Amino acid sequence: MKTQLVHLSSRLWALIRLLSTDDAYERYLAHRARHHAAEPLLDRRAFYLCEQEHKWNGVKRCC
Amino acid sequence: MAKILWWAVAILGAFALGGIALHRGETINAMWIVVAAVCIYALGYRFYSAWIAAKVLSVDPARTTPAIRLNNGRDFVPTHRWIVFGHHFAAIAGPGPLIGPTLAAQFGYLPGTLWILAGGVLGGCVQDMTILFLSTRRNGRSLGQIAREELGPVGGYAAMLGTLVIMIILIAVLGLVVVNAMRHSPWATATVFSTIPIAILVGLYLRNIRPGRVLEGSLIGVVLLLLAVVGGGVVDSHPQVRAMFDYAGEPLAWFVIVYGFIAAVLPVWLLLAPRDYLSTFLKLGTILLLAIAVIVMRPELKMPAVTQFIDGTGPIFGGAVFPFVFITIACGAVSGFHALIASGTTPKLISSEADIRLVGYGSMMLESGVALMAIIAATLLEPGVYFAINSGPGVVGATAEAAVATISSWGFPVTVELMQSLAREMGETTLFARTGGAPSLAVGMASIFSSAFGQGLLALWYHFAIMFEAVFILTTLDAGTRVGRFMLQDLFGHFSPSLGRTSWYPSVLLSSALIVAGWGYFLYIGVVDPNGGINILWPLFGISNQLLAGIALCVATGIIIKQGKLRYAWVTAAPLAWLAIVTTTATWQKVVSTDPRVGFLAAADQLATKLASGVLPPAQADVAPQLIFNQRLDAGLALLLTGLLWVVIADTLRVSWRVRQGLPVPPSSETPAIAMAQVRT
Question: Could you give the angle at which helices B109-119 and B96-104 cross, rounded to 10 degrees?
Answer without folding.
Answer: 140
